[in-house]
């Protein structure tokens, strides 16, 4: 008994006859002729393992070819189970896009065995993705197909182009090597010539083979002729009710074809079968009409899914209101009337459907008797039929016959079939459905298959008890293959033949009697016979036209090796035309061939080709097929020269397919392995140590106050810091004393640390510094004497003897008990001592003396501080440290800390205080140093980037914005410019592609555009140009001073290192690319944008302005009178009337004078984007990027553009269209659009769904203006802005959101993470989603909501959900059902950073809880303008955590010599506004919570702690490698 493939164990051992065939296959190319079920595939696995071991290391693959899609999965799984090799399965539905060369290269290099359909492999060879000299073995399953124009033969034609030593080994498998039994020898020779292999059979172990592949009993069964009439069948038939003969021509139903098929079915199956066919056929046609009328895509029904209730469309609640022509409505009514006769219904009074024998033909009755007679408890059988509709009808009828109803469970199995309605109303089965049917048959869930020829070969079935040929045999292959399904010793193979049909009986007898003789033809031959010569491939079965074959050409594209032949030319043209964009109002475009033996080819007019290249005339040939091939070959070759096909003979494909070249042929590097977070990126930084140092004078309000020292000549900058005008001058080299240079450098380092501690950070710094703020002399050199005096007491001088009135309001002091609060000395109060009585109303008034108050304040843990009883007191005012470095680009002061407000004076005893010997001008300069350094760094990076990247003269501030990432929180970032730059990028690329590829249609151009503007391309170009080294990502807090050497740097290195390690998300690269374009566009318009894009390596066609590059390409021509008024309304006079005609021509018009508007629409879409975005950018300078993007989306959506086309320009009256359905649809929507105001369109566009043609024609018209004006952007933009003025005037940053966005943002702000959308089908048989539900915490809140389109259904569902969830009185209120933690930011157990998300949100799906939650977070951030949390960036350079605060306290405590029991009062948050009330916290564990609350209330926290070990001195850090 044969074993099913899936049942074979991993340790399956070969049989003797399999070893025999394998041994012969090792020696030469062979075709194994073995019966079905004899284990041919297992022999191939033996050969595969042998070849893989023999050719190891050669970089070759093994290709296993199958003729049908269903076999890919089956054979691939079997090979994977039997070998340890890497097996890849590939067919049309799962194959990588042909344009993805890198993807194919990776796929082929990462596999050992490639199991695929023959056509896919032929495509790979045609487009030069792989070569046959890199294949070690080709296995041909069911190799008898290697004839005529089958893909097998196409592969072998390529095989014979190689030298013998370069060819792969061939192994063919078939049960029927002889196609034509009348000329068996020649038939066999042809197969051997085509496959370059010898047909062999088992010779030494025939008995074993027969034991495993027994022959069934064959029976010729005659049945009576069909009856003329069936009196028992009802007279009132569906055919009579439909009145198909009376249908008008506009009802597109092929009545004659249906009648012919109806008559054939009537004769074969009887009246019920014919009526069942008619009912099912008409039901699918009406369903198709309904789907088209409702705007659905063409998704045809299959016979595998009966039961579609047509009346559901009109009776089901929420169903859409679809109108059909009256005649079609009548057909639908007829089907509903007869429904219960053919389908099971839900009517409880209706009994089960029964098919009476008197309703069946004699042929069917005989079939029923045969099945009944041979039925057993384990029965399994197959009935082979010729036509699909017969299979469908029989599979329905047989289980309903009373005689078989409890015995037979039937299923149909048919092929994939035609892809559209024009070729076949009965669409074939999907691969998944085929697999399910085969699985059910194997599992005995069904016991009878009604199958077409698809079940004859290849598919793995268990051996059947009974195989019946219901229709006559047509050829030897069908006879042998179908008989092979009956492999039991007790199996029976029955051939049904009509009585009196001697021809059919004779044909069967000829097959049966000749089969043993045919087997002898190849079974007893000597295997050492001559192998076919390489050139003999041309002598295939088309030898009746030898001259045609001899004249065939072959074209190989130089440099790529792509191959054009007569056999693939037609397919290449079909592929090109299939990419032309089309909607439901335009058919799929196909080439048209006319003529017989001399063919003429007409390409669709939608291809943007000159008239002479739309028609081709082929040479005269001796067959019609050869004539079509010849003219297609000529056309493809010409189109390749016109660049319609690229050098791989491919039209452009989607950029998402992995194309790693841009439109200009430049490589796009693989960025898939670039990490989400770029860490330790060396970013340009001017702050450096080194042998040479420069001092730059710093001016406050025009007065030099200090010098800024570093190893770089700094750019001159200006800024306003809290009302003070700050600038720096030119750098002067620091004149170090030769003998004391080291000591001077150490003093400069100590002074800088001192100034940072007193004025900025309040903490020690461990790493060597890279910039220094120092006092200067009148000649702009460093004032070493002042520095030396100051650093003698870095943390304050306790000696007050030299301090007098001249120091009042000019000296910094500090209380050693509150070193976190520097003060400005107001006065030395000799009139007050610690024992003085505080005045009433003061904060000390509650205590007898000032000393008592201070003892109470500073006593901690019962340790009383030593406070003198006599001596003067110090009166000071708070002078808070300033650690923020944010500044305003426009010097407005926005984003900076508020000016200091001086409170009442504070008194402390002089003995507790110290004063800093820092000049007033210097400590005032220290207070602006963070902003100044930030500004200098930004300007330095911007100017360095401009010079090193060869960027045009973009203004400093705009380029700084473009290079600043959002996570820097600088008060400005690149997001606004990035949004504008995105539109500039799109337009610049579109104009270049439009002109570079004048003969490529919109579908090709759009694919190229997507590749040019993709994030992958932008990131690749950014990395190529090292853009990452100019980005600004540092945070705005300087509490941890950032201008130091990195921890691993050598402080003794004399060469300047002008780089600093920084971390930021990788998506910042593409954002900065687009932002730079936006900055260039704002600075100098589209011309400067072109220069910037070219400098950055983008596909813009070069920096030359468009009007110089492309002017004069469009010759002048008169404008048709039809469009005169349009020009007046538009405010533009066209030079080229032909261009305007093209802009107004819908693809359905089919004009011979011009192409359709699709290419111009492609241009206009990009133009409108820039116009709207530039308008918003200029009008709303404070709007964030999310607001700009949202407003743009409202203005450029299809309903908004359609309203402009109708209301402003009246384009619906001028559109040249030749489609009745489209004209009717436009007519329905025009009144609606005319009634809507601009505000209603902008606010509620999601509720409208006008035909796309209305928005397309506006885009094409404005695109034509740009082209016609010689690409004068300013002129075209002004025309577009005037046209859209009404919509633009309504736009604002705070437009109401659509219901979906409103729901997502509200859910995100509510903290819920258990929401998602769920699609559904109101009519599952259509396989089309038209309903949306909203699920919250596993409960369906709303839905399914059914609407005309899925977008509208989603909006309505979201609107209702938002109302229910926010209703406090509703049981579905979100507050009642949500159990998510309000403050959680984790989605499904892990925190998702925005930088970790897929690029462009492409991989996010709001139909999952996680996808919805993340999208909601992103959308909330975009609309609010907030920078999303990023775990990797929470603690940036210059920012501190709670642990850092404790470290800060420890450092300060260490550097001051104080009693260990002293209690320290620390400012918890540095701010320019002085602290007022004080909150005492003695519980250290509550520190983090209290500090957070205090920062919100702007108060200080006293924290009690023990001091740590002292920090190293500055001298120690200069003489040893610094560590943190």
Automatic annotation (TrEMBL):
<feature type="domain" description="Helicase C-terminal">
    <location>
        <begin position="363"/>
        <end position="528"/>
    </location>
</feature>
<feature type="domain" description="Helicase ATP-binding">
    <location>
        <begin position="21"/>
        <end position="195"/>
    </location>
</feature>
<feature type="region of interest" description="Disordered">
    <location>
        <begin position="522"/>
        <end position="548"/>
    </location>
</feature>
<keyword id="KW-0694">RNA-binding</keyword>
<feature type="domain" description="Dicer dsRNA-binding fold">
    <location>
        <begin position="569"/>
        <end position="659"/>
    </location>
</feature>
<dbReference type="Pfam" id="PF00270">
    <property type="entry name" value="DEAD"/>
</dbReference>
<dbReference type="InterPro" id="IPR038248">
    <property type="entry name" value="Dicer_dimer_sf"/>
</dbReference>
<dbReference type="InterPro" id="IPR036389">
    <property type="entry name" value="RNase_III_sf"/>
</dbReference>
<keyword id="KW-0067">ATP-binding</keyword>
<feature type="compositionally biased region" description="Acidic residues">
    <location>
        <begin position="535"/>
        <end position="548"/>
    </location>
</feature>
<dbReference type="Pfam" id="PF00271">
    <property type="entry name" value="Helicase_C"/>
</dbReference>
<keyword id="KW-0378">Hydrolase</keyword>
<feature type="domain" description="RNase III">
    <location>
        <begin position="957"/>
        <end position="1085"/>
    </location>
</feature>
<keyword id="KW-0547">Nucleotide-binding</keyword>
<dbReference type="InterPro" id="IPR005034">
    <property type="entry name" value="Dicer_dimerisation"/>
</dbReference>
<keyword id="KW-0677">Repeat</keyword>
<comment type="similarity">
    <text>Belongs to the helicase family. Dicer subfamily.</text>
</comment>
<dbReference type="Pfam" id="PF03368">
    <property type="entry name" value="Dicer_dimer"/>
</dbReference>
<protein>
    <recommendedName>
        <fullName>P-loop containing nucleoside triphosphate hydrolase protein</fullName>
    </recommendedName>
</protein>
<dbReference type="InterPro" id="IPR001650">
    <property type="entry name" value="Helicase_C-like"/>
</dbReference>
<dbReference type="InterPro" id="IPR014001">
    <property type="entry name" value="Helicase_ATP-bd"/>
</dbReference>
<keyword id="KW-0347">Helicase</keyword>
<dbReference type="Pfam" id="PF00636">
    <property type="entry name" value="Ribonuclease_3"/>
</dbReference>
<dbReference type="InterPro" id="IPR000999">
    <property type="entry name" value="RNase_III_dom"/>
</dbReference>
<dbReference type="InterPro" id="IPR011545">
    <property type="entry name" value="DEAD/DEAH_box_helicase_dom"/>
</dbReference>
<feature type="domain" description="RNase III">
    <location>
        <begin position="1123"/>
        <end position="1270"/>
    </location>
</feature>
<dbReference type="InterPro" id="IPR027417">
    <property type="entry name" value="P-loop_NTPase"/>
</dbReference>
